[in-house]
């Protein structure tokens, strides 16, 4: 039997957050409802961040209230601080994600905080989540390269992974935020990170700026990772990461994994339908 590899769909959040045109909540809801029929176990549906920083995600509560929840699907939301956590929880998120950076330059640009300050804020979120019995996922951005600081040492990534583990994150997603990571750099990064966390507690989050995302997935698979974030239609980028292109496209990643003998549990026709919807939303 082929081994299951999970694709964590992040298109409605990481994909859409960077679009300049304000996408109506109804369109986001329709996209999530289509994704809910495709076989994903987890879908990142919204962010509860400052609307001054990311206006596109300001309608998170409306989106969460409007989706038709499919049984067996967990709907996740980003929470940068306690206010964001409470917004996500009150909107019915099944889990929240806290998001630190391995580089100081990106931490400042994305969160207006040093790495240490951001982890202090995330500790408050993690404590509140624990009290509520809410699962917390962690992200580390800029795991190989930072748009401001350049090459990021693997030991810096490992340190932030250890901090997020200590805060109780059940899984940590390793983000090549600007898609500049080479397979060699990803392998060296994973070598350091695996000293702090088991492969079963890690996910790969590759952006495809340099067309290396699938090569980087293969490196991570060889290191034992079995969860990868992706966005239908290859949507995305990050408003605070100049030059970042989209996430690896779910449909490409799915085809790649299945061609290599892995099972994704996804329905290709529904994924294609969602990818077409996502592409239609792009650019506007
Ligand atoms: P700040 O300006 O330092 O903080 O932002 P603040 O507390 O002064 O807040 C500014 C304003 O936002 C205030 O409003 C707050 O009330 C409000 P004002 O008083 O001026 O009217 N505010 C909020 N509103 C709603 N929800 C909230 C919230 N918090 C404050 N939760 C802050 C600090 C962390 C808030 C800001 O920097 C922020 O929201 N950053 C998030 C940026 C973001 O979402 N980036 C994209 C996601 S990360 C990513 O894409 C990478 C990833 O995909 C992995 C990878 O690819 O590597 C995860
Ligand atoms: Mg991302």
Automatic annotation (TrEMBL):
Query: EC number(s) in its UniProt entry?
Result: 4.1.3.4
Keywords from the UniProt entry: Lyase, Metal-binding
Presence of keyword Iron-sulfur: no
Enzyme class name: lyase
Which GO MF term does the entry hold, naming one?
Answer: metal ion binding
Q: What family classification does the UniProt entry report for this protein? A: Belongs to the HMG-CoA lyase family.
* NCBIfam families on file: PRK05692.1 (NF004283)
Q: What is this protein called?
A: Hydroxymethylglutaryl-CoA lyase YngG
The record lists the organism as: Jannaschia seosinensis
Lineage at the top is:
Bacteria, Pseudomonadati, Pseudomonadota, Alphaproteobacteria, Rhodobacterales
């Amino acid at each position: 039997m082929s081994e299951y590899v999970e694709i964590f769909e992040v298109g409605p959040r990481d994909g859409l957050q960077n679009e300049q045109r304000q996408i109506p909540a109804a369109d986001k809801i329709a996209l999530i409802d289509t994704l809910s029929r495709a076989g994903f176990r987890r879908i990142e549906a919204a962010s509860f961040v400052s609307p001054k920083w990311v206006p596109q995600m300001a309608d998170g509560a409306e989106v969460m209230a409007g989706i038709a929840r499919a049984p067996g699907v967990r709907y996740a939301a980003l929470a940068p601080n306690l206010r964001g956590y409470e917004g996500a929880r009150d909107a019915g998120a099944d889990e929240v994600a806290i998001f630190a950076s391995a580089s100081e330059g990106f931490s400042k640009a994305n969160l207006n905080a040093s790495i240490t300050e951001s982890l202090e804020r995330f500790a408050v979120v993690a404590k509140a989540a624990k009290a509520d019995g809410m699962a917390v996922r962690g992200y580390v951005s800029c795991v190989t390269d930072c748009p401001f600081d350049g090459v990021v040492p693997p030991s810096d990534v490992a340190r932030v992974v250890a901090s997020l583990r200590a805060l109780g994150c059940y899984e940590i997603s390793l983000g090549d935020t600007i898609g500049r990571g080479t397979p060699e750099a990803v392998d060296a990064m994973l070598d350091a990170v695996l000293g702090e966390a088991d492969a079963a507690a890690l996910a790969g989050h590759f952006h495809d700026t340099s067309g290396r995302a699938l090569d980087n997935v293969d490196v991570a698979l060889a290191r034992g990772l079995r969860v990868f974030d992706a966005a239908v239609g290859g949507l995305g980028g990050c408003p605070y990461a100049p030059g970042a292109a989209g996430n690896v496209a779910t449909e490409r990643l799915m085809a790649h994994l299945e061609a290599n003998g892995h099972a994704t549990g996804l329905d290709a026709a529904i994924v294609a339908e969602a990818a077409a919807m996502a592409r239609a939303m792009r650019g506007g």
